[in-house]
Amino acid sequence: MRRLLALLPLLALLSPSAALAVACLSPTGVALCAAGQYCAVDSRIPDGSSCYQTCRIASGGSGGCSGTDRCISITGTEVCVPADSPLVTGTGPAPLPSCATGRSCPTDHTYVCVTDQCYLASGQPCTTDAQCQSGSSCTAASGGSGTVCTPKATPVTSGGSGETPFQSITPRLGTPIPGVSLSPATKNGEIVSVPFLAEYINGAYRYLIGISLIAAIVMTVYGGFRYLVGASLGDVKSGKKIITDALGGMLIILAAYLILNTINPATLNLSILNLANVDYQALVFDNPGGIDEGTSGSTPSAPRGSNSTEFDAIFQRYAGCAGLDWRVLKAVAFRESGFQPAITNRYGFVGLFQTRSDFCSLGEACRNLTDPDVNTRSAATGVLRSGANILTSTCPNLHDAHRFVMLLYFGHNSGPGALRSVLNTVGCNGTDAQYDQAAAQFWLDRAHARGTDPIPNYDHRMPFARTVADVAVSYGVTDPVQAGSCPSP
Description:
Layout: H1 2-13, E1 37-41, E2 49-53, E3 70-74, E4 77-81, H2 86-89, E5 111-114, E6 117-120, E7 136-140, E8 147-151, E9 186-188, E10 191-194, H3 196-229, H4 233-263, E11 273-276, H5 312-322, H6 326-337, H7 372-381, H8 383-394, H9 401-414, H10 416-426, H11 432-450, H12 461-474
Antiparallel strand pairs: 1-2, 3-4, 5-6, 7-8, 9-10, 10-11
Helix pairs in contact: 3-4, 5-6, 5-7, 6-12, 7-8, 8-9, 8-10, 9-10, 9-12, 10-11
């Protein structure tokens, strides 16, 4: 028996990075592993304990493990385990890798380091909710290939986020039409149903058809009267003509109805108009805003300095609509337009925040985006708010103001859809080089899918975003996310 126990350390060396299928504790509790190995005691291992090669996560790569083995932290010690080890995929949740005392997370997936533990970032394959970062859950992938960490839906309220609640409207006719009753618009999920437009057109059509037929009948009776009581040949002929014209008109109306009903009955009875809400979080801006892209159609005024206070009151008024520190809005406006409210770049983006009417949700006010108040509200309740919502839900523990503003501006300039793609690729705690590469790759992949050339300056969008973050930090921004109220329109 003693000889067998003496051979155990030698057997452990035969597979230095894999777990040995033997107990690594003697009956007296003494570890029997060789030098450089660790006896990991865990109920999920068939015999309860095994010898594992030690490793170092901070050394990068596989941490010194061979093959496909992973370097993870078990009870504070970093050891190599096979990818299919019960410690990773077996019964019960796998121990989370450690990132304590400056250690790096493993590189086999994209992790987010939170309170000394490595959690899987959004979009990464997972097996349990516990592996995902806060605000995400392990759900089925959209393509049906396994499960991934997915951000939980975060409802937007009308208080601090600026979301305008749905308000049903019912138009009132200036001149009532008999038989026409207009119903209010309704909202079901993300679909707004507008029935009154179809009701008005259908009712007006039936009303006009009825009036025309009544008029034809009246004229036929009148023509018959002229024909019967006519005292002269002229009166008789006039009566016959009136009857002929009235009957001809009636036949034309009936023929039009029959033709339309034969071709497509739907043309005689319009259906309810269903409108889908614009999903800001899926928007991608191929043509960037910003005066750095060149100006067109306007005579730029002299750019104001970064310390200009001319529009501070407006930024403070609408910062709560996006849930941001007002100085973040100021930094974005400065880098976008140089505080020039009437400037238009060569792609048609207008004003302080370089937006366009097709990305504006303020109704008639969107026609006046050169108004600093309208332009700021449009940005705060639109793309900036969507970007802030994505960051706070995907990266709830991102407290680096510079990185937050950099990613926020990238979403403002490239679209929330581009921001979500970068976060899914890199996570919330990547390096500048990783974010630059992910952003450039997003545009390359998009161009390849469309069979077109990449957009201008596609590889400079994230570096430019860092200059916006520089300005925000210089303004004193330390916590970009600030709760606040949004004024009513």
